[in-house]
Amino acid sequence: MTADWAPVGPDPHLAFVRDDVVPRTPEGCEDCLRIGSPWVHLRLCLTCGHVGCCDSSPNRHARAHAALVGHPIVRSFEPGENWRWCYVDEALA
To answer: Where do the UBP-type domain residues begin and end (predicted)?
Structure first.
């Protein structure tokens, strides 16, 4: 008997992840800092280093950045957290 499904495999968007990413604004959300808005949690774009606020924040800048420039994967920029999220697949990466 054979399965009628196959594992999808690793997220193809991982190709966008760079090893040498440096946070552009380590002090907080780049866009919130510019407009004087608060944020809840921070996310680091693993393609360019943009620091954006999470989906629980009023402006959701990390998601907006991903949609605007096509950088799909972020990691938590919170102390002690190291998970990654793919906005394209809406899943951990």
So the answer is: 4-93
